[in-house]
Each structure stands twice: as C-alpha cells, then as structure tokens.
Specification:
By secondary structure, the chain is of the alpha+beta class. The protein is built from 3 helices and 7 strands; from the N terminus they run H-H-E-E-H-E-E-E-E-E. Strands 1, 2, 3, 4, 5, 6 and 7 form a 7-stranded mixed beta sheet that branches. The longest helix is centred in the N-terminal third of the chain and has 18 residues, at about 5-20. The protein starts with a helix and ends in a 6-residue tail after the last strand.
Length: about 130
C-alpha cells in the first residue's frame, strides 16, 4: 500500500499532467466540492468558477499551459495534510504573442475523502517571471 505522501505526490503529478493536456474533468476530480483557491488581487475562487476558467483555458484556440511543481514539504495529520510547493506555470498563446511565465510558492491543504487525497484549499503566490534583458 502506498504511503499518504506517495499518494499526494501522485495527485500533484496527475494535476500537472491533466493541466498540460487540457483535461479539465480530471483536474476537477482531484479537488473537494468545497475547494477554495486564494490568489493575489482577487476574491477567493470556488470550484464552479475554477471549472469555468479551466474550460476556457482548455479550448483549442487557448494558450497552451505547461509547468512544473516541486514539492518542498508534505505533512500528514490524520485525514488532513498540507504541503508547500515551488510552482512554475508557462502559458504559450496560440496566436504567437509572448509567452507568459509565472512562478512562486503555493500552500495547499488536502483532505482525504473515501480513501483519496483531494485538494481542499490552495493559496497561490505566483508572480510574473522577469527574464534578463526583457
């Protein structure tokens, strides 16, 4: 049987792969129904709004999303866990305009439901990446 930490690492891998592939349904199935996303400069986002945004980003003519997530720490406390990660997201527009890269840290709270770890809360501190000479 896989450890809780291994299961959480698999969730992160599945999330990143599904995001890269525009597989919104898989991403939605990796979160609780009462999930809340916190991002700078906007009100908290719940699952329904996340789904709307994700579906728009998965359209054929939308920017292609790629990135990486490096887990820095996972702590499991019964049916709850938290982790913090270093996240990089790169959006490459289909119209040939400039690629947008954001990077920073996230703090995520997970909850185990019916034996599966799911994302329940996420605080995202991503900021635009400035490249030398840009």
């Amino acid at each position: 049987m896989k450890s809780d930490e291994d299961q959480i690492q698999e969730l992160v891998t599945a999330w990143m792969t599904a995001s890269r592939n525009g597989d919104v349904n898989t991403v939605l199935n990796l979160m609780t129904d009462d999930v809340i996303f916190l991002v700078p400069g906007r009100a908290p986002m719940r699952k329904e709004e996340f789904a709307t945004v994700a579906k728009a980003q998965a359209r054929e003519d939308a920017a292609k999303i790629d990135g990486s997530s490096e887990i820095q720490e996972i702590k499991v406390l019964g049916e709850w866990a938290f982790m913090w990660t270093r996240l990089k997201v790169v959006a490459t527009p289909s119209d040939g305009s400039a690629t947008v890269e954001r990077a920073g840290y996230t703090l995520t709270i997970l909850r185990k439901e019916k034996g599966r770890w799911l994302l329940a809360r996420d605080a995202n501190l991503l900021a635009p990446v400035q490249h030398a000479g840009a």
